[in-house]
Amino acid sequence: SGRRLSTASMKLGQERRHLVDADPLNPFGPDNNIVVRHGSLPELYNYDMERDSTTAIPMRSRFQYKEIVPNTEVAETKFTDHDFELLVQPNYVGVFYDKFKELYYSLYFDGIPVYDADSLKNQYDDKPMSIIVFNRKFEKLGEVQLAKNKYIWGIIPTSLGLLISTSHRKNPEAKDDILQFEIFDIYEKMEP
């Protein structure tokens, strides 16, 4: 997984500060393109603005062991089992372009049971999270699975590395009034 380089903290309610050399959620690529992903599909979609064309690119997580399919017991949207959709189903979230490393990142969350071993209801941020890393040519470079109950899905590419929030509610080091991050050097050992 990524190597912890340093920790940054920001106290909530502090004077607002701008993240210098940061580029949060950015689906715009460097090649006049927009890259998107749908939560239930293992493919990315690259829209080339010059050619006005879209290409589907396989980018499946190595942790996705089963297909993501809709709940077939639901006949109408108003009867959707939200616990099934949010917790039991695995899902993909977003595409982030890192202009500093010229890489893309996409997040994958594996499915979990609705209730944990203590019969307490799980929450979305309890799902195991991994970061899929790929280059401008959409070649998958690797995937890093993050430690459970430490990170939440807020990631921000910066010139120093990838900021990943450590403000998970089950993280014993997390504080309610402080938003904490670790800076990852994503090139540190990744598994393809």
Question: What does this protein structure show overall?
Answer:
The chain is mostly beta strands and 192 residues long. It has one helix at 82-88; strands at 3-11, 33-37, 43-48, 53-58, 91-98, 103-109, 129-135, 140-145, 155-158, 161-165, 178-185. Strands 1-11-10-9 form a four-stranded antiparallel β-sheet, with no helix packed on it. It has a four-stranded antiparallel β-sheet with strand order 5-6-7-8, with no helix packed on it. β5 (91-98) and β6 form a beta hairpin. It starts with a strand and ends in a 7-residue tail after the last strand.
- What topology, given as strand order, has the largest sheet? 1-11-10-9
Secondary-structure class: mainly beta
Uncertain stretches:
1-24
β-strand percent reads 35-45%
| Count of runs of 4 or more consecutive helical residues | 1
Q: For the CA atoms, what is the radius of gyration?
A: 18 Å
Give the number of DSSP strands.
11
Topology order in helix (H) and strand (E) letters: EEEEHEEEEEEE
Bin the helical content: under 10%
Distance between the termini: 12 Å
Biggest sheet record: 4 strands, antiparallel
Query: Mean pLDDT across all residues, rounded?
Result: 79
Globular, elongated, flat, extended or rod-shaped: what is the shape? globular
